[in-house]
Specification:
- By secondary structure, the protein is α+β, with helices and mostly antiparallel strands.
- It has one domain (2-8, 31-162): Glutaredoxin (3-Layer(aba) Sandwich), CATH 3.40.30.
- The chain has helices spanning 2-10, 64-80, 97-106, 118-121, 155-162; strands at 16-20, 35-37, 43-45, 54-59, 85-90, 113-115, 124-125, 128-129, 135-139, 145-150.
- The strands form three sheets. It has a six-stranded mixed sheet. A two-stranded antiparallel sheet has the order 2-3.
- Strand 7 (124-125) and strand 8 form a beta hairpin.
- The longest helix is centred in the middle third of the chain and has 17 residues, at 64-80.
- The model is unreliable at 1-28 (pLDDT under 50).
Length: 165
């Protein structure tokens, strides 16, 4: 199901804003806990990112938009990985771990790259369903979602959503 949906993410379709807010979260907003394990054993979680804004991307190895998004993240992380927690969750089964590692090495990604858990493989994440990739999320320091976008989000747009967090 997700493989077919992933194809939607690499077409030339217009980017869809799934939900966006540059204002601080509403007082009743709740932080969204998440937890994955990166390919190199680092934690990719709300606990590991505590106190820092997060840029979290769900994508697949064979999706060109995910690759482009990963490159944007790497360029950004080179400047501010100490202030902002960047991570990529590959929606790939465990038997593609070696391919995922080659993907990470080939793109020279220094931020955490994780494989999806069973729920995520089923299209369910703590942030809602994944029906196509890439899905880009920005979380504030408390873990509240301030941006959720389907499709490629350029570095300038990410920086604008991170401003003031």
């Amino acid at each position: 199901m997700l493989a077919a949906a992933a194809l939607l993410g690499c077409g030339g379709a217009a980017q869809e804003v799934v939900g966006e807010s540059k204002a601080p979260p509403a007082p009743d907003a709740r932080a969204v806990p998440f937890a994955y394990r990166s390919l190199d054993g680092r934690a990719v979680s709300s606990a590991a990112s505590r106190g820092r804004p997060v840029v979290l991307v769900y994508g697949t190895i064979d999706n060109l938009l995910t690759q482009a998004q990963a490159r944007y993240l790497q360029a950004m992380a080179a400047h501010d990985a100490d202030r902002i927690f960047y991570c990529l969750v590959l929606v790939e089964p465990a038997d593609r771990r070696e391919l995922a590692e080659l993907y990470r090495q080939n793109l020279k990604l220094t931020f955490p790259v994780a494989l999806a858990d069973d729920d995520t493989l089923g299209g369910r994440t703590p942030f809602g369903p994944i029906e196509a990739v890439p899905v880009v999320l920005v979380l504030d320091r408390e873990g509240n979602v301030v941006l959720r976008r389907l499709g490629l989000v350029k570095a300038e747009e990410l920086r604008a959503s991170l401003r003031g967090l």
